[in-house]
Structures are given as C-alpha cells and as structure tokens.
Amino acid sequence: METPLRIGILAVQGNFREHAEVVRRLGAEPVEVRLPEQLEGLDGLILPGGESTAITRLMRLYGLDEALRRFEAPVFGTCAGMIVLDRNHLGLADFAVQRNAFGRQVRSFEADLDVGMGEPVRGIFIRAPWIEDAGPDVEVLAEVDGHPVLAREGRVLVAAFHPELTDDTRIHELFLNQVREAMSVRA
Ligand code: GLN
User: Fold this and answer.
1) Cβ of residue 49 lying under 6 Å from some atom of ligand 1
2) Domain ranges of the chain
3) What is the pTM of this model?
4) Which CATH number is associated with domain 6-186?
5) To test ligand 1's pocket by mutation, which of 15, 53, 79, 82 has the most ligand atoms within 8 angstroms of CB?
6) pLDDT for 74-129, tens place per residue?
7) Is residue 127 in contact with ligand 1, taking CB distance under 6 Å?
C-alpha cells in the first residue's frame, strides 16, 4: 500500500478541524501545524478560513510566517487562508484580495460554482474575500459575479469559500492531486 499523503493544516485559529476531517476521509494524514518545525516532511499544507487578522498575528508570534515563506510544497488557502497568502500578507501568490468583499455578515451566502468538473460545486461564502487583482500566472477556476473565487498559481490553490463545510470533497481532491503531481515531479 502506498504511504498516505501527510497534509499539514495550519491550526492556530479557524476551521482547521473541519479540514482535517475531509483530509482524513480522503485517505491522507492530517497534521496540525502550530510550530515551524511541524512543517518538516509535509507533502502539502492547508491554511483554513477563520479570521485573517488573528491568523496573521498568531503566525508571526510563532515564527510561522518566516517558515511558511520557505515552505516549498503545495499550499491550499480557503477564505481567510486565501487572504493570508496574498501579496499584502505572506506573498506566496501573485494576487491581492479584497476582504469582506461581498459585504459583511449580510453577505454570507451559498452559490453554485461552475468549476469545470461536471456537477457544479456548492460554495459556502462567509464574509468572503475575492481576488481583486491577479498577476498573469494566476489561473481563475471559478467566479461569482465576475470576481475570482477559486484560483491557482503554480503550487498555490485558493478558494474564497468553505469546501470543508460541505460533503462534496472535490475541491480537496483537486488539491491532493496537485500534491501528488508535485511529488512525482520531485521524485
Ligand atoms: N472575513 C474574514 C477575514 O477577513 C474571512 C472570513 C472567513 O474566513 N470565513 O479574515
């Protein structure tokens, strides 16, 4: 049997338990990350949704911001996790986000997203950001009202919504496939 993928989940604040559950359901091993040394040997990393201001502050406190800038495997950021990856935060991807872009509490909503995988993906948006400005290498995979909400740039995948809050695992599977591809390139 092949050894399961080891997927780190940044666990300083937010929806890390829900992501860990999906990762486990897909046969990979979730690893909660709170300290820089816990990034060692991971095949990929998920930055969950939550509160980007809190996540940014805690990452700095634990020295995770510097460690993440050196992390080389694929990264998947959802909602606040997408904010944390942008040009104005960790700078791991070439886009800038608009926080709370759909409006504050009132604009928590669900939408069917055409992501080119057959049946649409039901996106749960909670005070969600969107991508405001993207560099040429950013591939937009889904939009709401013309605003990018699912995108990929090289090894970085980002979603403005919460795929960990539905039973549909296709977005996580997309990420795990990206992880497997990166491993076969390295091997
Ligand atoms: N609005 C939050 C922020 O700016 C993100 C919301 C979420 O992750 N659900 O950090």
Assistant:
1) yes
2) 6-186
3) 0.96
4) 3.40.50.880
5) 79
6) 999 999 999 999 999 999 999 999 999 998 766 799 999 999 999 999 999 999 99
7) yes
